[in-house]
Design a protein that fits this description.
Layout (H helix, E strand, L loop, with lengths): L1 E15 L4 E15 L2 E2 H4 L23 H10 L15 E4 L11 E8 L3 E10 L17 E4 H17 L1
Antiparallel strand pairs: 1-2, 2-3, 4-5, 5-6, 6-7
Length: about 170
């Protein structure tokens, strides 16, 4: 079952001067994807590594105006999304850089396949610099999530309607 929940990551910025280094921390709030109630960030983290820091643009103040809707159209996978909302090889970003939401920084992507009754997220991989991945490079290729299409569409459409009305 696809869902979302409020999440927060802490952004750390370092600034340097002649005599000291200053560290500034800022919280970034957004809505993250969940699968059967478990955050996607947790499902794609490998122990003993910390949870990945990448985020979504859903209800994220860091996102440019309008990008949230374009991102959700790509997640809906019904029609071709804007070119800048997906990777050049057609893979859809699920989690992206927490600092600037840019696809060049390191993005968790997946192939999204819509069927008559289900929507499948498959062939997960980390992509950098919008480069296509090699066919044998999908680090998380065994990971697959299958969602009931009606429930999936309801969740994503509600998010899209909210993004378009704000």
């Amino acid at each position: 079952m696809l869902g979302t929940r409020p999440e927060v990551v802490t952004l750390t910025e370092l600034s340097f001067s002649w005599f000291r280094t200053k560290e500034t921390r800022q919280e970034c709030a957004y809505e993250g994807w969940t699968v059967d109630g478990v955050p996607l960030r947790q499902l794609v983290s490998f122990p003993p590594s910390p949870m990945v820091q990448q985020v979504t643009p859903i209800r994220n103040g860091q996102a440019n105006h309008g990008y949230e809707a374009d991102y959700l159209r790509a997640i809906l996978a019904e029609e071709p999304p804007p070119e800048f909302a997906v990777m050049p090889d057609g893979r859809v970003p699920l989690l992206m850089c927490e600092a600037d939401l840019h696809l060049y920084c390191g993005t968790l992507t997946a192939e999204i396949v819509r069927g008559d009754r289900v929507v499948v997220w498959r062939d997960f991989a980390w992509q950098v610099c919008q480069e296509p991945i090699a066919e044998n490079a999908g680090e998380l290729s065994a990971l697959t999530f299958t969602f009931d299409r009606h429930q999936y569409d309801e969740v994503v459409r509600n998010l899209l309607d909210r993004a378009l009305s704000s």
